[in-house]
Amino acid sequence: MALKIAVVPGDGIGPEVLAEGCALLRDLDRTLDLGLVFDEKDWGAERWLKDKVGMPKGALEQLEREVAAVYFGALGDPRIPDMAHGREILLGMRQGLDLYANFRPCKCLHESLSPLKGKGPREIDMLVFRENTEDLYVALGGTFKQGTVDEVAQDISINTRKGVERILRHGFDTARARPRHDGMKKLTMTDKHNAVRFGGGLWKRTFDLVKGDYPDVVAEHLYVDVLAMEMVRKPERFHVVVANNLFGDILTDLGAALMGGLGLAASGNIHPGKIGMFEPVHGSAPDIAGKGVANPLAAFWTASLLLDFLATKDATLAPRLLRAARAVDAAVSACVAAGPRTPDLGGSARTKDVGDFVRAHVGSTLAA
Length: 368
Ligand SMILES: NC(=O)c1ccc[n+]([C@@H]2O[C@H](COP(=O)([O-])OP(=O)(O)OC[C@H]3O[C@@H](n4cnc5c(N)ncnc54)[C@H](O)[C@@H]3O)[C@@H](O)[C@H]2O)c1
Known about the structure:
Layout: E1 3-10, H1 14-32, E2 36-40, H2 45-51, H3 59-66, E3 69-74, H4 84-96, E4 101-107, E5 125-131, E6 141-144, E7 152-155, H5 161-177, E8 186-191, H6 197-210, E9 218-223, H7 224-233, E10 240-243, H8 245-259, E11 266-270, E12 276-280, H9 297-311, H10 318-338, H11 351-367
Parallel strand pairs: 1-2, 1-3, 3-12, 5-10, 8-9, 8-10
Antiparallel strand pairs: 4-5, 4-11, 6-7, 11-12
The chain binds nicotinamide-adenine-dinucleotide.
């Protein structure tokens, strides 16, 4: 069976890092016969400026019908200051494809990358799940008396029992299936139900109910302010963390900083069992776009998450897809340990140097 991947390079450094990521995926496909088919999309700022189209009509339906996963670069262009095209494309996919589970590994690959004294790869190794379709991001609300001194603004946070339960169950399933490197199986749910009573209360009640189905997973609750402090003070106490959309958004950027910066942080947005959209966490980085110095490691790590997801969709190909994913992980780790580093990680290498190193490393892992 062919596994079709829609490739959306987007804007700025998006096309630069995805070119490297796609070259790696094509190498893997050739070596391991993974059945990958690529379908490149021109969605982004240029098309928006030309004909005001973000995602063409029927595109979501085509993705749902034909595509196993989306490999996404970044959006953002100074000529579109309100990010109108980004909202249509990115939020369109997250909502339109019901990609309710956003997840980001927060894993430090090398001591030299950690901003925390005495904390390195053994301590910083967690997986943060963010509910991706509800909360304050549903664009419900409005303003009253806008532009006057009496202006009132309201954003409505939506939390549904179904939405909360499915992200919690996915988090628990993941904690059970993929223990931390030291064997820990734990899920920390975070909210602020002492102050945000209604939505927070629904999260806490649902958590108390669902955790009963996972007696083998340690279930912990922390208020989000305490969690933020503990992620810095004692990251080793966390394995899987589950948060709502807003808290998850903020916590995952803290997570990116703990692992060494945006040049490394990878993410997936998935509807388990259906489709997934995989993107480096960083944006289009207009300050370095076109200079050939963007760090492609986040895009490589993202490719590994994508391969893991594809393995859940095809049992026959799964062993080869997982082998490919682990080879990419090993190459990314080897690169930060002893390979070329781009300027964001303190080196002077170019995007292509890192890409060449990673592809060569993957090649020799698979040949061994
Ligand atoms: N998912 C997305 O597509 C996404 C996410 C965040 C921001 N954005 C958009 O991107 C644009 C720029 O936003 P920003 O500057 O706040 O965030 P950004 O992530 O693009 O850049 C922040 C800083 O990190 C650096 N950086 C980011 N990725 C890097 C990489 N791979 N290698 C080396 N350095 C890297 C940049 O040079 C910049 O100094 C804006 O239009 C914003 O809306 C898009």
